[in-house]
Amino acid sequence: QHGRMILESVENGPLIWPSIEENGVIIPKKYSEISATEAIQADYDVKATNIILQGLPPEVYALVSNHKVAKELWEIIQLLMQGTSLTKQKKGV
C-alpha cells in the first residue's frame, strides 16, 4: 500500500494542494488544515523525491537537486541518463 503511494507520486505527480477562499483571495491550506488522506499523500510525495535523490550519482544530483516534485525529477533524470543502465533496465533491454 505505502510503496504504491510512493510510486503513484512518481508516475502521476504530487497531490494537488487544496486551497480555500478568504476575502476573494484563493490561498493554499496549511498542512494542519488538510485531510488525513491528503496529508499522507503529501508525505509520500516528499518520500518519493527523497528516495530518487538518494540513489543518484553526485554529478547528476548536482544538476537536479533543486527539483522538488518526484514526477518532474524522475523525467529529468531519465533524460540525463539516457543510454545508461538505468534507462536500459526500464526499457527491458
From TrEMBL:
This is Integrase, catalytic region, zinc finger, CCHC-type, peptidase aspartic, catalytic. It comes from Tanacetum cinerariifolium.
